[in-house]
Amino acid sequence: MIDKTDFGNIKKELENLDRFREEAIQRSREIIRLSKQIIYALHRNDVKTAGELIKKIRLDKGLLLRHHFDSDTDMPIVALQEYVEATTYYEFITSGRIPRIKELKVPVDAYLGGLADLTGELVRKAVDNLINNRFEHAVKIKGIVDDIYGQFLRLDFRNGDLRKKADSIKWNLNKLTEVVFEAKLKMVVSNSSESSN
């Protein structure tokens, strides 16, 4: 005979798991939203707003971390990758450095995925620097993306999301090399025509 009390407990456990999953999805969406706002603010040179959002996202990240391994959805890992991308970009803009994994207190897959995504934002920043005649800043960013790519080459990824993200770093580095080269070429041509006058 089936124990009805046992099934009542099972029903409660399933309901708790469902609530837990929904909470993980809700917190993940909030972190993804905040991450996009931070990056957008930084691209507009609004460091103050980005700093305020960083405080909020760090609090939300702490609450999300407990969902990372216990949820049956990929949303928490995506949100943590977005968190890494936004916070590393913020640190790069405000202090010129890329935080270590221990500083961010995130799982390895979140750190690597976020770092790979960061390279796309760095390309955008380098292009902005070139538009505003800050060639040396763009060259520095190219060096950072090159360093990130070099470190990723040391890792052995299976086919999957991290493999694709690692490949995107190579694409971003190639794009950055191309735009920096074109800017340098224009500078050389411009200097050459000025000196011949």
Describe this structure as you would to a colleague.
There is one protein chain. With 197 residues, the chain is mainly α. It folds into two domains: 1-102, Methane Monooxygenase Hydroxylase, Chain G, domain 1, CATH 1.20.58; 107-197, Methane Monooxygenase Hydroxylase, Chain G, domain 1 (Up-down Bundle). 83% of the residues lie in helices and 0% in strands. It has seven helices and no strands. α1 (4-43) packs parallel to α3 (75-95). The longest helix has 40 residues, at 4-43.
Tell me the β content.
under 5%
By CATH reckoning, the class of the largest domain would read Mainly Alpha
Ranges where pLDDT stays below 50 over 5 or more residues in a row are none
Give the fraction of residues assigned to helices: over 70%
Q: Terminal Cα separation, in Å?
A: 100 Å
CATH topology of the largest domain: Methane Monooxygenase Hydroxylase, Chain G, domain 1
- SS elements, strand count: 0
